[in-house]
Amino acid sequence: MIARVSALALLALFAADSVAGIIENPATPPGGQKTVTLTETWRAGGDDDDVFFGSVQRVISGADGKVLVLDNQQAHVQVYSADGQWLQTLGREGEGPGEVRDPSDTFYVPDGRLVMAQEGPGKLVYLNSDGTPGGQTQYQPVGQSSAFVVLVGGRTAPSGMLLTGIRFNQSGPEAHQTFFLSGCDPEGAEETVYLEKTYTVNYADFRLDEAAMDFVWMGRMDIDPDGRVYVAPGRDIYAVKVHAPDGSLLREFGRPVSAPKRTAEETTIATKVQEAIGANYGVPLRGVTVEDKEPVIQAMWVRPNGEVWVRTPANERPEGAFALLDVFDADGRFTHQLALEMPGDPGRDGLHLMADGRIAVVIGGLDAWFSQQGVEMSSEDSPVLEVICYEAI
What DSSP designation does 355 have? Predict the structure, then answer.
């Protein structure tokens, strides 16, 4: 049984930003549930392909129907035509022009250059459409000094880019971390801060807390073609906030529902994720704390027609469906739910909704990421990483 958020809790939530338009939605959509069976167009990787993927972080669409697959383990982007023909490899591992180490994301800037965001030390590496180096720069926060920056992800914005990451400042044994989501110009200079959160760790007694580490990161943020930024900042509250490009709050919408208790497997995965994150700090991890529930919003996407699709563990998937998504119209009204019918393991395969409406599934995505982090999940053989592209819906 899914717990419902009380009316009093919702009132408190919606009253937080009285200047914004608050869209109140029912727990169930008036349009009911719709099912779409996705049509596969092509696949890459797997046992029988010449291309081998290490760990796929992002799948995005490009010009002329191209599909770009970021392999962050191999530090390059594989480019495919609309019908799945391999075209070229962009970028490579290294420190020179057009080279990157541990890229966390890839996206375009308005002039058509492709950006590969290096995780840490954070930098932005640009590639021209022919694969030649297009320069590099760094994220430049306004009025902030930082010894170290980690870039977690980014999105294309009409005036530049949307970046999320962590600024580190050291004070004795303590690392003061500022998680940020910021709008930047095409060269990485910060213009608007949409969201910030601080979290301090003590290296002398290094522990990680899942709730304290929670942020919108890549899954709970998106941007529409007009530059409006969508964020789901609350881990345990189903609420999406929409900001104008200047940061002002335009509206907020959601629905009254909460996440169910985690299964034993989900708790194990959450623990392993925190341990994998802790391994990047370079000091012994003495313990982690995880929550007994998944985030109520796991992911959200602004679709080409203005709809917002939200993935939540509160939804019970129909048999044969990979995901059951909540669909909100461009005004934030909960209209219906959409069951995406296709093969795969929803708990371990990655779901990527591209800007042109197509969908990609990365088979074995979670297992590959754990393997890259040196984390063993099970004794079973992990699937060979494979990217499956489906038609737009």
Answer: T
**Cα(first)–Cα(last) distance of the chain, in Å?**
31
The per-residue pLDDT for range 7-59, each reduced to its tens digit, is 334 434 443 333 468 999 999 999 999 999 999 999 999 888 889 999 999 99
d(CA 243, CA 150): 24
Q: Which amino acid is at 246?
A: D
DSSP-derived letter for residue 268 is H
Cα(233)–Cα(74) distance, rounded to whole angstroms?
32
**Cα–Cα distance between 162 and 107 in angstroms, integer?**
10
Give the integer Cα–Cα distance in Å for 366 and 265. Answer: 13
> What SS3 class is residue 30?
coil
Sequential DSSP letters for 185-230: -TTSBEEEEEEEEEEEEEGGG-EEEHHHH---TTTTEEE-TT--EE
Q: How far is CA 176 from CA 40, 210, 299, 355, in A?
A: 46, 16, 27, 35
Cβ distance 27 to 6 under 8 Å?
A: no
User: What pTM, to 2 d.p., does this model score?
Assistant: 0.91
Nearest to 336 by CA among 352, 349, 324, 323: 324
